[in-house]
Amino acid sequence: MGHIDTADNTRTLVLGLGKSGAFVARYCAERGDDVTLYGGLKSEPGELGRGLEQAGVRVVYGTEDVQGSYDLCVTSPGISEFSDFFRAAQACSAEIVSEPEFAWRESPERWVAITGTNGKTTTTTFTRDLLRGAGMRATAVGNIGYLCTEAVTKREDGEWFVAELSSFQLAVSRRLHPHVAVLLNVTPDHIAWHKTLENYAAAKEKIFANLTPDDLAVVAVGDDWCRAIADRLDARGLRLCRLSLEGDPGTPCAAFVRDGRLVVRLDGTEHELCGGDDLQIKGVHNVENALAAATVALAVGAPEADVAAGLVAFAPLEHRIEPCGELAGVRFVDDSKATNTDAVEKALTAFEPGSVVLLLGGHDKGTDLTSLAGAAARDCAAAVCYGDAGPRIAAALREHLGDSSERVYEAPHMAEALDRAIGIALPGQTVLLSPACSSFDEFSGFEERGRVFKDLVAERTATSRDARRRGRAEKSIFGVPERFEKPRLLLYLATFALVAYGLLMIYSSSSIVALTGADTDHNPAYYLIRQLIFVGGGLAAAVVIACVDYHFWANKFIIPIWLFTVFLLGLVIFATRWIQIGSFSLQPSEFAKVTIVLVTASLCGRYFETGELEEGRFVGLMAAAIVIPLGLFLLQPDKGSTMICGLTLLVMFYFCGVPGEAVG
After folding, report:
1. Strand bridging mode 240-243 / 216-220
2. SS3 of 282, please?
């Protein structure tokens, strides 16, 4: 292990009383530095601070007004370079660096550095596992959760450090020099910290600042920012590997997909590794991550056969498109790590279009939602928006979807959003938590959000029929889960009994008339046979209609159906209740009963479920849509149909959640 090249009794300043600040302060104190730690404006004395003071660290609480003179300042990643705290420390220090660079200076050999807006953790872990699979010592460090400085204290001979580096950590890097550096993508994120997207991209580019032609720069050229950075690296004469999912870049070093297989070319030598479909981690973005990890592994000496085997063996990471349960044919996937819109769009590529019920929301970063709305409209069956950002996301999706805006739902929190998604999702679909937001409105971080989501899924699964059947695979009939068969069977039996009773009544009341009528050929079953034909046609129509999502009828055709119903009812005002069409007759009130149920279901769904309708508009539409048909019933007069429809409405309101006393 090396040591930082400063004089003995180095005056070291540490910013931040978090995990990294406390460890670095203790580390420097133990090696003999004169260490001062400023905890920040909200810091207070506590057990952690007292422990540092006992180790010889001077701890300053409750202020960002840094005083003194220091040879070196090590800053924590949560402190922006544009903050007053950072500037005060910079004014008092000969040099200011991030914790990863401090660790690199202590032990600079065999470093790989990986950054990007999305995919950093997956690629870092993937790279570490490929190296270990090849028999090499490797540890994942940095933003992934293992402090670089702590890893330095435990480093073994010949061990590679695979460092995940955030833009915060890179922004204040000066001499950091990995042997291989990787940039996966640059999309808008953390703008509040960096002030501008240009500053954010510049921080990412710093990962290559100190590379020489003996090193390797790997750049995925899937966005304009990365393509521009790659061109600048090329101009510097660096050894550059362009990573592309659009085909072979044609450069001496390249990583790409050819005929569905992952290929890495280094200095003209090609390595064909495995098929994209062979990867356990799904999605186009994960093909990109796999190519990046494979490129790094091959570049530092891992054998091709070991890399190919490791690519196929790598399993999904926690909170990154992680399958976490199944309920009644609906799968649940935790992608809590998707804290920006680009990550969500990439996650959606892992699923069949139209198969996802997407959970979006959390702390609103104010990100532009245009691209996300387009992707969700194209790839999702529905979206449930929740949390602080929920209303803004829902509005953006509805604006994009237009006539299909009924696919957008809202809920106050993630738990309610999950329950809403369970109610929406059909067998074969996936409920995907990929929020496009940070979690700080409800949770401490994406990790807690993901764990809570998985716990909620486990609770819902444990209380389901699936759990009570002790894990036995649930049967389905025509795609309908078995747990629905008991209520369906009761409905079938009730329908059969009512139809049979009706046919019996028809026969008993019409047989004598038919027997004596010349136009019935004196057949007592004439009217019964005719009704049986109608019953057969009605049942066939019912089966067809039942196979189509009710939203198709309730939302797409509800206005034409309602207008047609009112028209039919208008034809029989103050006259007969029947419309004669040749030898057939139609009773409009029977058709109107179905229409009233559809209208009520549609409006209640838009009010109680999606929140699309405000209370005043809901009441107004319900009054117009229901009172007019009921009024026409009374003008026939048909008090029986009026009472039946009125009772049906009360029952529907009750099951929609209207309190019993309000219904009464």
Report:
1. parallel
2. coil
